[in-house]
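Bumping my old thread because nobody answered last time. Still need a sequence for this structure:
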């Protein structure tokens, strides 16, 4: 088999000096593995003549499917040729040395290298292969032909363009380990200037290119442009990147490596909470003594070379002033939300849906909206009751965890009690400041327990404020009727007249 392949290869090389080009096939993502950085023996480049070297490569099924002729290998620098031959073994005779490349996963990159040595590019741009982006409505447009106004409407690249971008990134990693500076700069120029870089492209550059770009940023203008492109894309899409689970895994994996871990941590802090960034980055945080005054604390901070910012170090007294705040815009870390949570419990703003249902989704802040069924909630879903949201007798305006505001029927909601059914004597929870300076509400007193006790089916069905719910809901929930005073407004029964005329039409 090997001798037949060698004889056929010799005949082919005798005619045109190389093998026929075949179409590239997409290989898995792990095809980005590069030639082995094994130590090259001094005799590799000395004992072999470039005019007699032919490289064969392919996949596992057909390892001799492609070849690079000697006239193409002559264009490679000596360092790149030595790296390729170090990862190959000789299968030819003494007069013509034929090398078989051992790593089958690099066949895609070697085929691209062959096309580059012959034509100067491996993906020649055509109208069908131009990188494209898409807007929010699903319309595709060519990236480098569009003006700035159209580019600002783009939300991502197409799947075909992203697949080609992944091949370019794998080729860049291959050229870095191949020690081929000319080809590396060519690939870097294509990545930076031809392809649109959105969230998923920025994540790929962080994962596969950043280490090499950081080390080579001072080698050439193209390498510097690659490094700046990665930094600009990360800063531009940092709000979307920090929500990706793959980014968090990359952060945990690279936190101990320099310098990627430091850079990721810095812009993660900037993206999550600009307000507390200085406090989290402080190398020597100020230790506050419990009995010291704020003036003494500021003096000690200045002596330590730190600037004490009360807004940064101390948690805000009321961090959630706007109740229409979405979960993505709430301050971080989570501990600063405890005062707002306690306040919501005290004011009975936390509601639980006792059964699934739907309501009207309110778009925008206008109350003049048309009825729809777009606001959906599930059983036992936690909702926020808005202060100014009561409509009429039956409807309430609530907000879910996704930031959607809806108008739903109030009888499907049960409030979360401030004591959460876990504290003794129905005392409400707090965040470190007990409510000892004001009397407790009668509904939490053990001397006067609430009339309505939590049911077994719905343990959160304790309704402490009856006045918040309408008459129809109180009747459905079997609340005890309130005592009324004064004249009854019910219709009195008809009384018979004292004298009835036997002839009503005679006077």
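Sorry it took so long. Here it is:
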């Amino acid at each position: 088999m090997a001798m037949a392949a060698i004889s056929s290869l010799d005949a082919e090389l005798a005619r045109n000096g190389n093998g026929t080009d075949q179409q590239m096939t997409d290989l898995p993502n792990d095809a980005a593995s590069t030639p082995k950085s094994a130590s090259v023996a001094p005799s590799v480049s000395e004992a072999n003549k470039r005019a007699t070297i032919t490289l064969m490569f392919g996949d596992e099924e057909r390892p001799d499917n492609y070849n690079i002729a000697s006239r193409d290998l002559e264009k490679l620098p000596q360092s790149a040729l030595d790296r390729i031959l170090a990862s190959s073994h000789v299968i030819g005779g003494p007069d013509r040395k034929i090398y078989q490349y051992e790593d089958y996963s690099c066949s895609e990159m070697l085929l691209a290298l062959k096309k580059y040595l012959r034509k100067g590019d491996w993906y020649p741009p055509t109208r069908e292969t131009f990188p494209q982006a898409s807007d929010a409505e699903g319309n595709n447009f060519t990236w480098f032909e569009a003006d700035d106004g159209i580019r600002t409407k783009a939300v991502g690249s197409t799947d075909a363009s992203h697949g080609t971008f992944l091949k370019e990134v794998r080729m860049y990693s291959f050229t870095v380990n191949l020690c081929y500076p000319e080809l590396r700069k060519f690939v870097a120029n294509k990545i930076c200037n031809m392809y649109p870089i959105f969230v998923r492209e920025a994540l790929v550059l962080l994962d596969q290119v950043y280490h090499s770009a950081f080390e080579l940023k001072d080698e050439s203008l193209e390498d510097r442009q690659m490094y700046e492109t990665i930094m600009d894309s990360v800063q531009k899409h940092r709000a979307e990147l920090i929500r990706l689970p793959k980014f968090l895994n990359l952060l945990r994996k690279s936190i101990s490596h320099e310098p990627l871990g430091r850079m990721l941590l810095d812009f993660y802090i900037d993206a999550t909470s600009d307000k507390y960034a200085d406090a989290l980055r402080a190398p020597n945080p100020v230790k506050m003594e419990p009995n010291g005054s704020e003036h003494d604390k500021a003096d000690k901070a200045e002596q330590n070379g730190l600037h004490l910012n009360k807004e940064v170090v101390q948690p805000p007294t009321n961090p959630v002033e706007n109740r229409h705040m979405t979960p993505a815009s709430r301050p971080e870390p989570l501990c600063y939300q405890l005062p707002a949570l306690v306040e919501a419990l005290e004011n009975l703003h936390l509601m639980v849906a006792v059964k699934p249902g739907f309501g009207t989704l309110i778009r925008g802040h206008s109350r003049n909206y048309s009825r729809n069924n777009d606001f959906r909630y599930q059983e036992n879903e936690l909702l926020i009751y808005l202060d100014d949201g009561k409509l009429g007798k039956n409807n309430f305006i609530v907000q879910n965890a996704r930031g959607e505001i809806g108008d739903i029927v109030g009888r499907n909601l049960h409030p979360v009690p401030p004591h959460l059914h876990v504290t003794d004597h129905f005392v409400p929870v707090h965040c470190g400041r007990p409510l000892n300076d004001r009397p407790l509400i009668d509904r939490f007193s053990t001397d006067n327990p609430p009339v309505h006790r939590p049911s077994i089916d719905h343990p959160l069905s304790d309704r402490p404020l009856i006045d918040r719910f309408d008459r129809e809901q109180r009747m459905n929930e079997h609340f005890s009727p309130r005592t009324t005073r004064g004249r009854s407004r019910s219709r009195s029964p008809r009384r018979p007249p004292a004298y009835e005329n036997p002839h009503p039409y005679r006077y």
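The radius of gyration is 37 Å. Let me know if any region looks off to you.
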